[in-house]
Design brief:
single chain, alpha+beta, Cyclophilin, two-stranded antiparallel ribbon, Cyclophilin_A-like, Cyclophilin-type_PPIase_dom, Peptidylprolyl isomerase
Length: about 260
C-alpha cells in the first residue's frame, strides 16, 4: 500500500515532469523565434545566441528558470555552449572550500576536486572573476524537496556563464531506488541543470533537509554544521508570499564569493 507521503512525492515528481516538458516546448519555440529574427536581420550569431533557454539550473529561455512548484527538483538556467568552459587550472587531487559572504550569514562548503574537477575548476574560475559577487539566491523550496538555489547573476533562474560543464559524480550518493531517486542528504551542495545531461552552468543548490531527487544533479560540495544552520534559518522564514517554491522571504544576497585550496 502506498503511503500518503509516497503519493505526495510521486505527484510532485509528475508535476515537475509536466513542467519540464512545457519548458522544453517553450525552449524550442523560443529558439525558432530567435532564429527567424536573426535571419530577418541578417545577423550572424556565433556559438549559440539564445544562451539561456530553459530554467533548471543554468538556462536559456526567459521563463525557463530553475523552477517548478513543490517539484522534485531544483532548477537552473542552462546555457548553450557559446563559450568554452575554463581551462583546467586546479589541483585535481586537492580539496577546495567555497566561501560566500551573504546578507543572511556566512556560507561555506568543501569541494573534492578529485571527484568533480570540472565543477570545482569552473566555480574557482568564476569566483576569481567576481562572477557570484552581488548576486542573490533566487529560489527556496519548502515542499517535496528542500533546497536554496543560488548562482544566477540575473536572479530569476535564467542566468548562466555562457558555457556548460559535464555532469560528475552522479553515482556519489548511491544507486537510484525503485522510484528513480536517491537521497540528497542535508548539507549537500549540487549543480542545477535543465533536466538534460551536461547542462550545468553556474547555478547550484544547497540542501537543508534530506531530499529525494533523480541522480541527475552533480553533488560537488558539503556544508559544515554552521553553514547548514544558516540555510535552515532562511528556510524557516519560508517563501515570500507563503508558497512552497519561490523567492525566500529572507533575502540572501551573496556579497563576496571565494574559492581557496584547503
Amino acid at each position: 500500500m502506498v503511503s500518503s507521503d509516497q503519493r505526495r512525492r510521486q505527484l510532485a515528481r509528475e508535476k515537475f515532469e509536466r513542467q519540464q516538458r512545457r519548458r522544453e516546448e517553450a525552449r524550442r519555440k523560443s529558439k525558432l523565434r530567435n532564429t527567424v529574427i536573426a535571419a530577418a536581420l541578417a545577423v550572424v550569431v556565433v556559438g549559440g545566441g539564445a544562451a539561456f533557454a530553459t530554467g533548471a539550473f543554468d538556462g536559456d529561455d526567459k521563463k525557463k528558470s530553475d523552477s517548478a512548484a513543490p517539484s522534485e527538483t531544483p532548477k537552473p538556467s542552462a546555457s548553450k555552449d557559446s563559450a568554452p568552459e575554463p581551462k583546467m587550472a586546479i589541483d585535481q587531487k586537492a580539496s577546495y572550500t567555497m566561501s560566500l559572504k551573504t546578507s543572511a550569514g556566512d556560507i561555506a562548503f568543501k569541494m573534492a576536486a578529485e571527484k568533480t574537477p570540472h565543477t570545482v575548476n569552473s566555480f574557482k574560475s568564476l569566483a576569481d572573476k567576481g562572477y557570484f559577487d552581488n548576486t542573490k539566491c533566487h529560489r527556496l523550496t519548502t515542499q517535496g524537496i528542500f533546497v536554496l538555489q543560488c548562482g544566477d547573476p540575473k536572479g530569476d533562474g535564467t542566468g548562466g556563464p555562457g558555457y556548460t560543464i559535464p555532469d560528475e559524480n552522479l553515482t556519489g550518493l548511491g544507486k537510484a531506488g525503485a522510484d528513480g531517486t536517491v537521497t540528497y542528504p542535508a548539507g549537500t551542495v549540487a549543480m542545477a541543470n535543465t533536466s538534460q545531461p551536461h547542462t550545468g552552468g553556474s547555478q547550484f543548490f544547497l540542501v537543508y533537509k534530506d531530499s529525494k531527487l533523480p541522480p541527475s544533479y552533480t553533488p560537488f560540495g558539503t556544508m559544515d554544521a554552521a553553514t547548514l544552520k544558516v540555510v535552515q534559518d532562511v528556510a524557516k522564514a519560508g517563501v515570500a508570499g507563503g508558497a512552497g517554491d519561490g523567492a525566500p522571504k529572507t533575502a540572501v544576497t551573496i556579497t563576496k564569493a571565494a574559492v581557496n585550496k584547503d
